[in-house]
Each structure stands twice: as structure tokens, then as C-alpha cells.
Design a protein that fits this description.
240 residues, Rossmann fold, four-stranded mixed sheet, five-stranded parallel sheet, alpha/beta, globular, 33% helix, binds guanosine-5'-monophosphate
Length: 240
């Protein structure tokens, strides 16, 4: 491609390879990123997605994770977190969560193997530290689907984490979605709705708010955030 540059000088421009984004060249076979020498931060982003129960976090994240590689600025991976909650029907150990006993969870806490952990709806949930660091070191953007306490804890430990709050169009719509899911008891629904109000109050601690009115639009917005965050100039050594 030939362009007319400043002061009338002709410039020879080589088109970028198709899979080159923001100085990062993705090897499609390995889904890894080779970083150019002028970009010292080789780590992928750490993206935290929080939002009230039944807002549609799983649906939105599943849609995001099923996008073709070229639609994203870097490969993304969702971190499977650990919980003491009983698996729901259709949930698989190691896919939806790592389901563990309370004793095993305490052991993980004692060994400092969790980046953060919190009690949510009377159960414990925690993020495996090594898995997050390992994936980021390979240049993957890691997504954590965790609650607002976890989001704030992660931001404190890793200020470069990007916090997205997924919100419903309204609380009435949230209740409709929660009931439509038909997985919780009446008592559970009441508790989750109460928690939803508290969680909504934590929005100001987040970097971005995305409304899940339509899944495709919410996914598009998150992709735009990822693109913008890949262009952000980050100072200092990467947080792993
Ligand atoms: P659920 O039981 O509906 O799957 O999840 C309940 C809440 O726990 C959700 O808000 C979910 O995002 C959150 N959660 C899942 N894993 C973790 C985790 O590792 N840490 C924290 N702090 N919250 C989590």
C-alpha cells in the first residue's frame, strides 16, 4: 500500500497481518501472543465481571467466549472459581465451578492459594491465584465472574484489573429473570433480591457499567472495553 505522508513524502506501508492487534501478533495455532519489544507488559488483562444474580452474567460471558478469535483483541479465558455450594442441576465440576467441601476450602485459604474469597448467599467462593497468574502470563485475557466483594478485593491487590458491572435494565426485570430460572427456593429468591440491591450500590467502585438488555449488545460493549483497555498505556511492572 502506498500513502502520501506529511510534506508530500511517499510512504511504503506494509499491511499488518490479519491477526495483529495493538502490537500483539497472535499465533492462531497456539492461541498465544508474541509481544513486540516496545511493549514490556506481556500479561493479558484481568477482567472482573460482577452483577446481581440472574442478570445474565453466564449468558453474556458464554457468548463472549464463543466469539471467533479475530473478533477479540486477545484470546480470552474464563477462570473456573472454587465454591462450597452444592452443584445445581446441569452444573459440572471443573466447568462451572470447582465444587469442594468446607474443609478443602479452608485448606486452600490456609495455603494462600486463593487470590480472594468471600461468603456469598451463605456459601464460600474463591479465585485460584495460580490459574489467573498462569493464564495472564501466557497473554490470555482472564475473566473472573465474581461478586462485588471479590471485585473490590481484586482491585485492591491488582489495580490494573478492569472491573465491569453488569446491570439489569431494572430491578423488576431482574426479579422476572430470577423467577424464570426456577432453580432457587422462594427464600433464596428473596435473599438474592435483597443482595441485588446491595450489589447495585457497589457500582461506583467499578470501572464500567454495562446494561444487559440484549445479550449481543452487552457483548459488543464488553469487546469495545477490551479493545480500549488493550490500548491503555500501563506504567510499571505488570501485576501477575
Ligand atoms: P452462584 O451461586 O449464583 O453461581 O454465584 C453466586 C455469586 O458468587 C455470583 O455473584 C458469582 O459471581 C459469585 N462468585 C463466583 N465465584 C466467585 C469467587 O471466586 N469469588 C467471589 N468473591 N465471588 C464469586
Amino acid at each position: 500500500m502506498v500513502c502520501q505522508g506529511h510534506y508530500g513524502k511517499r510512504l511504503e506501508l506494509t499491511p499488518l497481518p490479519r491477526q495483529c492487534y495493538n502490537n500483539r501478533v497472535i499465533n492462531p495455532q497456539e492461541r498465544r501472543i508474541e509481544t513486540k519489544p516496545w511493549e514490556p507488559d506481556r500479561n493479558g488483562l484481568l477482567l472482573v465481571v460482577s452483577g446481581p444474580s440472574a442478570v445474565g452474567k453466564d449468558t453474556v460471558l458464554d457468548a463472549l467466549l464463543s466469539l471467533p478469535g479475530e473478533a477479540l483483541p486477545a484470546p480470552v479465558q474464563k477462570c473456573v472459581t472454587t465454591t462450597t455450594r452444592e452443584p445445581r442441576l446441569m452444573e459440572t465440576d471443573g466447568v462451572d465451578y470447582r465444587f469442594v467441601s468446607a474443609a478443602r476450602f479452608n485448606d486452600l485459604v490456609a495455603r494462600d492459594e486463593l487470590l480472594e474469597y468471600a461468603e456469598v448467599h451463605n456459601n464460600y467462593y474463591g479465585t485460584p491465584r495460580a490459574e489467573v497468574a498462569g493464564a495472564r502470563a501466557q497473554g490470555m485475557d482472564v475473566i473472573l465472574k465474581i461478586d462485588v466483594q471479590g471485585g473490590r478485593a481484586v482491585k485492591q491487590k491488582m489495580p490494573d484489573a478492569v472491573l465491569i458491572f453488569l446491570q439489569p435494565p431494572s430491578l423488576e426485570e431482574l426479579e422476572r429473570r430470577l423467577r424464570g430460572r426456577a432453580t432457587e427456593s422462594e427464600e433464596d429468591i428473596a435473599r438474592r433480591l435483597l443482595n441485588a440491591r446491595k450489589e447495585m450500590a457497589q457500582r461506583p467502585h467499578y470501572d464500567y457499567a454495562v446494561t444487559n438488555d440484549a445479550v449481543e449488545a452487552a457483548v459488543d460493549t464488553i469487546v469495545a472495553i477490551l479493545r480500549a483497555e488493550h490500548c491503555r498505556i500501563r506504567l510499571g511492572p505488570p501485576n501477575a
